[in-house]
Specification:
198 residues; mainly alpha; Lysozyme
């Protein structure tokens, strides 16, 4: 009788262990599936043809453009910031005028064009391309997209913030530092989710 009870107890333990292992395996698989779906929903690919075209024309990483759009407007073409920046890539009016002049666009093209997805991505990609060439460092370019060229130039010339004058060792303003962190996080996930070898 005791031997039978021990046998039954041992069998019960084996069954419990097997159930636990199956639960862990399937639970982990379900978690991975749900987590990946969450990431795809939070880091979508939209306006693909436009981003491909204008990032390629400006020789910049298309995933950087997706990351900037994700952080700036979350893919809302009619977005307006509290300081008046417009569209997907949140272009300010003064920046629009500067880019329009550099691109040689007609003066008839008004600032309202920044609500048009194609024009906004075209202008935003031009600006990101310009900044990445100007600074030769992606983090500095991202900071300049947020804080302006003058601010980043002054930070790079200050040894407290940059040892080599090329890379920022410290971003002195918390809002730009937070912006850089958000763009780099989005960039990481875009590469992780959408590169062919993921």
């Amino acid at each position: 009788m005791r031997a039978k009870r021990r046998k039954n107890k041992a069998a019960l333990i084996v069954i419990i262990v097997l159930i636990a292992l199956i639960a862990v395996f399937f639970g982990n698989a379900i978690y991975k599936t749900v987590h990946k779906k969450y990431l795809y929903n939070n880091y979508p690919i939209k306006y693909e043809a436009l981003v491909e075209k204008y990032s390629s024309e400006n020789n910049i990483d298309k995933f950087l453009i997706y990351a900037i759009i994700r952080v700036e407007s979350n893919f809302k073409s009619d977005a307006v910031s509290n300081v008046g920046a417009r569209g997907l890539m949140q272009i300010m009016e003064e920046t629009f005028e500067w880019i329009r002049f550099r691109l040689g666009d007609s003066e008839e093209l008004s600032y309202d064009a920044m609500f048009d997805a194609e024009q906004n991505i075209r202008y935003g990609c031009y600006l990101v391309g310009y900044l990445t060439r100007y600074f030769e460092n992606q983090d500095a370019a991202i900071c300049a997209y947020h804080a302006g060229v003058g601010s980043v130039d002054s930070w790079l010339s200050n040894s407290e913030y940059s040892k080599d004058g090329v890379r920022l060792d410290k971003v002195p303003t918390s809002d730009t530092n937070h912006y850089l962190s958000k763009v780099n996080k989005a960039l990481y996930y875009y590469h992780k989710l959408y590169t062919e070898d993921n």
